[in-house]
Amino acid sequence: MRSPRVLAVDIGAGHVACGVFGVGASGRLILQQFALEPHSSDPSHEARWAVEIAQSLGAIASRHRLSGACALAVPGHLALTKFVKTPSVAKEKRSKIVAFEAAENIPYPLEEVVWDHAVVADDGFDLEVMLTAVKFDAMQALCTAADTAGFPVERAMPTGLALTNAFRYNYPSVRESVIVVNVGARTTNLLFLEGERFYCRTLPIAGNTVTQAIAEELRIDFPSAETLKIQILSGQSDLPANSPSRAAVARAAAAFGSKLQLEITRSAVNHRRQTGGEAPVAVYLTGGGSLIAELPALLAEKLKLRVERYESLRNVDLASDARIAGAEGAAAVLADLVGVATRLVNKNETDASLLPPALTAALAMRKRQPVFIAAVALLAVALAPPIAYFHSRTVATNEKIARVDDQLMPLRSVQNRNEQNLAQIEEAKKQIKALRGAYETKANWVNFFADLQERLVKIEDVWLDKLQVTRPPAPDPVELANAAANAAAAAQSAANAAPADPNAPAAAAGEIPAGPVQPPVRMVLSGRLLDVSNPQSKVSPQSLQRVKDLLASFAGSQFIAAVENERFDTGQNGLLKFDFTLVINPKKSL
Fold this sequence. Notes:
The chain is an alpha/beta fold. The chain contains 14 helices and 18 strands. It starts with a strand and ends in a 6-residue tail after the last strand.
């Protein structure tokens, strides 16, 4: 069985460190492979920081052949940590309390950050929680840079928590109150430890503070000041002892030590006041910025505490590859890197994830992929026999279908001819029906005019000036056919439901059989009535009544369904003009 391994990546403001850790037979961590790539910590390069991270990781991947899913330590200048105390509640209710505290204490809207929490202590009365957050855009850019270089991030944690895990692993017997000071390039992490409780604070003073002071005093750019600082403080400079550059570096380093001591003292006092903890008994110094030779003695003198160098690799064994790569010489910057890997030997250590939700979901899916692949493989194996069987059956069936098709070919030809003949018969039926309708209604116009003439004669002294037929637009053939079919079906259903009545009257001559409802034909008529009794005066009421009687008489005609739009004009002496519209009875088509 393959032993567990983790590829840890520590991204600092001035370097990128990578290490492959495993677990030895003794249960101790083994640093199997190691790589360190420095990059510029110039604050003016802030906009290019993610690009430089990707370039540094790319260089590590190409030079040391390191790549793969990694666990990441998020640098202190990106991650925010807050420690809050709330009343202790049941675990199932804790998430709501923590979310409320996060909204109150994180100075950004929660939807703009990636945040998580870690429980510091829970004594049944008070719950101490560490909140940690990083802006979503910054974390997304960091993960994208790592992924671009071939290091997809599967776990991310703040450096303060990584330092906590590393110290507990390397110094398991230290239970009294201590302070761990990790001096980086842009920030300094203060870690207060007392038993199982811990407290982190990030200070904005670090190695760049010294560099900036040198640059301002000597009036040189930041990269030149950084090079000068490293050469003098590491003892590699050839400058004379009394040179102005050496003096400037010494003054900047001393000023930084004084500022750091004041911040440590202030933080320790505030921490004791808020938590009621014990006074610290020792200070452990680590980080690239802590390599100033005079810094431990200066802090010990000012703080009145024992100050010693933190041993990042105290309980970590080095493989030959890591030793050759210079892991021992870089031990001062490996504290966070070791803390990312300690989960291999301590499964129950405190953790808080700063991985964006989208990457978390993608990681979960990637972890389930082997299961899905295995399930698909098993399904394919299980389905292979039935698939082969049904394939053979399908081939046999297709062959049988082909033989039957050959036998049915002459029958299909006969069927096609029958369908054509049936279509011709249906067309002939339609023509016969149309001719029958024309035959049955050919006398309707003659009878209509005779009926109209008869009614006009009865009134006397009245004539028509205009007669105009208005027909509705032709109906859509498809809709007409559907309506006719529905009417026929309804008639057949009614005939089947009721017994035939031998005394029922036959359909009247000239009537169109029941069918789809169509808009009726309208006829617009205009005429005049002569008022014989009053030829030189306005039309008399009697004449007006005669015209109304004429219109009323049309209601009794078998050709007329209704009279509409009646209008009368009495403006001319002796003549009454009128016009109206006759709605033709649909059963007496014209």
